[in-house]
User: Fold this.
Amino acid sequence: MAAVKKPYAAAVCGVKNSGKTTLLEKLVKELIRRGYRVAVVKHDGHEFQADTRGTDTFRMQEAGAYGTCIFSGTKWMAVKQEPQVSLDTLFALFEEADVILAEGLKDSALPKLEVVRKDISSESVCNRENLLALVTDMDLQLPGIPSLGLEEVGRCADLLEREMYKKTER
Assistant:
């Protein structure tokens, strides 16, 4: 495996319930099997609850702290109230990663795989700029964009690897 500029970032996008998380889970396992260190950044269109009622960090947030951090010997988690956080800020949290996969961000300029599943949607909805492939269970074709099956995780990983190394050759 050749050296890769770190980290390479790409998105897995699609409409709600299209199978983004399922594809991401399989991609993470496949990329790790290939020797990459992988991180995932998930976009949530709603205000998620980062902590649970009754924990010390939740109590500190309730008291007005704009940020909390909890850590142990092997992991840590920080929650920070900050409007309009940038992808660069989030990706910087994982500077040691080889690959950062983002879930969502269909309108971003990130290279992306779009999941289109026939029971959920019938067409591509993402920004076509940097669309690497459609991952679908339909005969859906876009000019110049490959279509891969929902179970073709190896081919998805191959495509990401090619793009990753293409980026380092520039």
